[in-house]
Queue: 3 jobs
Job 1
Amino acid sequence: MTKLTEKIEKPLDYAVNIVVPDEILAERIVGRRVCTECGASYHVKNFPPAVDGVCDRCGGTLIQRADDNEETVSKRLKVYYAESAPLVDYYKNANIIVDIDGNKTPEEVEQSVFKVLDIGVK
Ligand SMILES: [Zn+2]
């Protein structure tokens, strides 16, 4: 029992672990482009705008954020493996972890999570 589950007085039935290979995570982050006007997000490969560098929604300029680069991704992954990954082992040992393939469309990942949680799969 963790502090959170004690606080809400409910057991923790599942821990959902959305799994994406490191190189795919890196590709997603490095290819991300953000509109300077409205904040809309795009991806050079997975979700490109109709016109390169221009926001579909408002016509604003798309930029690559300074921290969306390989070096930052690598640093973030190191922090993840040092600080968060041990939690995955903890829940694996508790037999409540459910791995979900995160290398799919957002809608497919959402459906997989809903299936695990058994809440209103559309
Ligand atoms: Zn925009």
Note: Residues 1-30+68-122 form a domain with the Rossmann fold fold (CATH 3.40.50.300).
Job 2
Amino acid sequence: MLNRWLAVIATLFGRNWITLFGSALTTASAICIIGFLLLGFTDTEVSPYLDIMALLILPAVFVAGLLVIPVGAWWDRRRRRCEGETQPAAAAQFPVIDLNNPSTRRAAFLVTVLTAVNLLIISTVTYHGVHFMDSVMFCGTVCHTVMEPEHTAYLGSPHSRVKCVECHIGPGAPWFVRSKLSGLGQVIAVTLGTYHRPIPTPVENLRPSQDTCEQCHWPEKFTGDRVRVITKFLEDEENTPIKTVLLMHIGGGASERHGIHSWHIDPDIRTNYIPTDDSRQEIAYVRVEKGDGTVQEFKARDAEIPTGKERVMDCIDCHNRPTHIFQMPDEAVDEALAKRRIDRSIPYIKKVGTEALVEARGDAGDLKHIVERVQLYYRENHPDFYAANKGQVDKATDELVRIYKRNVFPDMKVTWGTYPNNIGHLHWPGCTRCHNDNLVTETGETISGDCSICHTVLAWDETEPKILEDLQIQ
Ligand code: HEC
Ligand code: HEC
Ligand code: HEC
Ligand code: HEC
Ligand code: HEC
């Protein structure tokens, strides 16, 4: 009995070496894939490279093997026919399948079962493979160096539980296919090392934000003002904390009042603009189209308007760093002092720490420089304090090193300020790219730069703002 089955297997797969090779490939990869899928039932942590092997490379080998099997059979038939080995079946155009013949029956049964098993393996692997390619692990760590800046910044952001693909691809089949095609180009660029360093921003052809951000956020529906307290530290001996309190007029589409979102997200208003540079930091032309048909054009007094780069403004023109948030040295040190990760009682630490970071711009030896720069300063200028508080100073330098590692990535040529942030107007032009005196209509109107359209400044760099006391904000 067993012999008969083995004979059928031998005729199906062992007739010629091509088919035999194909079956061996398929069987071996199938066993590995099944082994890997079974790992899923245990708690084993696997590296992304094993995932790539099991979910992308082995399935390719598996399918290649399956394709080779019929090629071998076809080649074998041709060869036999040429050698004049004409059996009744081989002479016909197509093989005659006679289910009355027990060995044909066995072969048909075997082929059916194997096809079912193959389909099961292919569909399981496709399902897991697609999930895997959508995972943060795949996007963020597989090409480790390339994605390290964005992945690192992402991990500490408000969106660290939102998957990369939810902002970068969004739902639906067409964008899925587009992303997989452009992903192929990226894999080639990474393999050949031809990718840009740093990865350029903005992302060309990013999907419109209605389909990504607005799957979760719906600013048309939320409205109102929000108090923002910004804490900074002076560069004096005491690292004196100062506070700015802004009442942000965020607004919302449904609100009658003016406000940032009320105007910019209003479905009745479309803002188009043309930048003069690839990073969209200088804007030469703005056109506002309203639902009632009115159109208003603002043109730069001092710049030529380039053609072919017009863009419709959406969430990302302001919120371009919702998750890849890189800090400037002073901002990062302020945050560390505010969260007491750096001890405020270390004299001049705001100044010294910021200076040490500013000097470390992505060269070899930066980390050593940061540590030695700070230690040297305290040894020379505050020897008594240093002798008594070396532990505190060491903790501070550790934090400075962490700040550096979150923001400077020499392998990708990313350093302080590589990626602009378009919210606000402190380190980058941001809102003032348009809200300035340079863009004018034919009749001389400009886009308002009045401080109070965006926020009310309730306190500005004050040590003890009365408003915080009144509002009982700590
Ligand atoms: C909350 C939404 C969001 C998530 C989640 C997200 N990104 Fe981004 N990403 C953006 C936006 C917005 C930009 C800037 C787009 C622009 O300015 O055109 C961007 C830009 C980038 C860039 C271009 C370089 C740059 O910094 O501008 C890379 C690379 C990138 N993201 C990778 C990733 C990776 C990897 C992940 C997952 C670890 C991820 N992103 C998760 C929204 C997101
Ligand atoms: C999958 C859902 C999801 C998507 C997609 C998403 N967000 Fe968010 N976003 C969130 C959640 C959840 C929070 C709140 C996080 C918290 O409060 O800890 C948040 C917070 C924010 C905040 C407030 C951050 C802060 O500092 O308080 C902004 C601004 C924001 N998102 C903008 C965006 C933009 C712009 C996009 C598109 C590029 C986007 N989000 C895409 C879920 C999402
Ligand atoms: C004209 C620029 C601009 C546009 C366009 C814009 N926003 Fe905002 N958004 C802001 C500013 C400014 C804030 C306030 C930031 C702050 O307080 O630090 C804000 C705040 C937010 C917040 C936090 C709200 C809160 O109550 O804390 C979310 C979420 C958000 N925006 C989502 C979006 C989404 C989604 C879109 C697109 C539909 C969008 N924004 C379009 C400028 C903009
Ligand atoms: C691409 C150009 C552009 C950018 C960038 C831009 N705006 Fe605007 N914004 C406009 C235009 C145009 C108007 C309409 C001005 C007018 O009609 O006087 C406007 C109007 C507004 C208004 C309503 C003004 C009013 O009269 O009530 C607010 C608030 C506002 N913007 C906030 C912001 C904030 C905050 C940012 C930065 C995060 C920003 N804008 C960035 C083009 C821009
Ligand atoms: C078009 C909108 C807009 C206009 C006009 C505007 N601001 Fe702002 N401003 C912002 C936004 C947005 C932020 C960022 C809030 C944040 O950090 O999230 C900001 C931040 C600030 C900050 C805090 C910066 C920091 O981090 O220390 C100050 C101070 C400030 N603005 C003052 C002003 C003054 C003064 C004017 C008038 C000359 C003005 N702004 C005009 C939108 C605007």
Note: DSSP finds 18 helices and eight strands in the chain.
Job 3
Amino acid sequence: MEVGIIGLPNAGKSTVFNAITRAGAEVAGYPFTTIESNMGIAAVPDERLYKIAEVVGCKKTIPATVKFIDIAGLVRGASRGEGLGNQFLGYIRNVDAIVHVVRCFSDENIPHVYGAVDPKEDIETINLELALADIATVDRLIDKAQGRAKSGDKDTKSTLATLAKVKSALQEGTPMRLLGLSGDERAALAGASLLTDKPVIYVANVSEDFSEADRACFSKVAAIAEAEGADAVEISAKVESEIAELPSEEAEEFIRDLGLEEPGLNKVIRAAFHLLNLITFFTTESGECRAWQIKKGTRAPQAAGKIHTDMERGFIKAEVINWANLLEEGSFHAAREHGHVRLEGKDYIVQDGDVILFRFSGGRS
Ligand SMILES: Nc1nc2c(ncn2[C@@H]2O[C@H](COP(=O)(O)OP(=O)(O)OP(=O)(O)O)[C@@H](O)[C@H]2O)c(=O)[nH]1
Ligand SMILES: [Mg+2]
């Protein structure tokens, strides 16, 4: 599961990426600094893990993670190959969700590719290129389906109808993700991964001083996001990247001084995590408390398989307790004694916040 960071050149994508992943990608005040995409892993901030570790007495904690890809900037005409067009679009095709970074900060030393900061225009520029790339994909599918129709395949009629519907929606500026297509209609797309089908969050990159202009800019970004049913987050990538470089105590003090409870990036990482339709379960074995990410709807044996394939194969039962109940009980042992640990079988669908001890042939997790 991967999240792609997209936006205009100089929007601050690599700055956001570095702050999130500490991967040290190149950042500079000229467009197309990023050419090859950068990949990095972010730990998902989750208070629950640390609370569990405190109660259970884990020496080590391992958070869940999300993979981020920092992609080259996109400009008008990218869908026709302008800028780093095709390369950029190829990278986006492979991601599962999108963080769209929108420049709100003003800094005369850092050129804006179109002269001035204009969040509405900037978002539309990017979204138009994504839609145009999708229209080209749909056109190719239409050509293929028409070819099949000519050779006498009668089943292509509904496929062509769906493709026409998707194309006209894209031409009107409606992203595929908002069309609410049925499973059958989706089948018409023959597994083509349309860019506007991917879930998105908008990140407004504001100035260090959160000025009046920044607030106005963020409101515009938030309004566009809301109209699409998407989330919008406001951060100063520059401040966040400075925080990320501080030792943790100093970072905490800095954050408090700014009147914040946590780095703004935590919100971005968590939002990305939800965008991927992931939930977290916890294990507490061998002095190691660990958060694991799984798709919503995953059953217990497959969740066990995340830890080790042997545990999926030999799955017998799962001992399960919600993290908050475990905190009240103080230990797995006490919770078991009070009958608060449930024994679940292979059809159990793991819930967000479950703490699980798997029993499998050959041992326990
Ligand atoms: N003042 C200010 N400058 C910022 C902020 N975020 C990024 N910058 C600067 O803007 C410039 C571009 O930042 P990058 O992170 O390289 O931007 P990018 O979107 O990755 O750009 P490309 O890779 O060229 O597409 C750098 O000089 C950053 O230091 C911010 O919040 N405030
Ligand atoms: Mg970059």
Note: The mean pLDDT is 90.
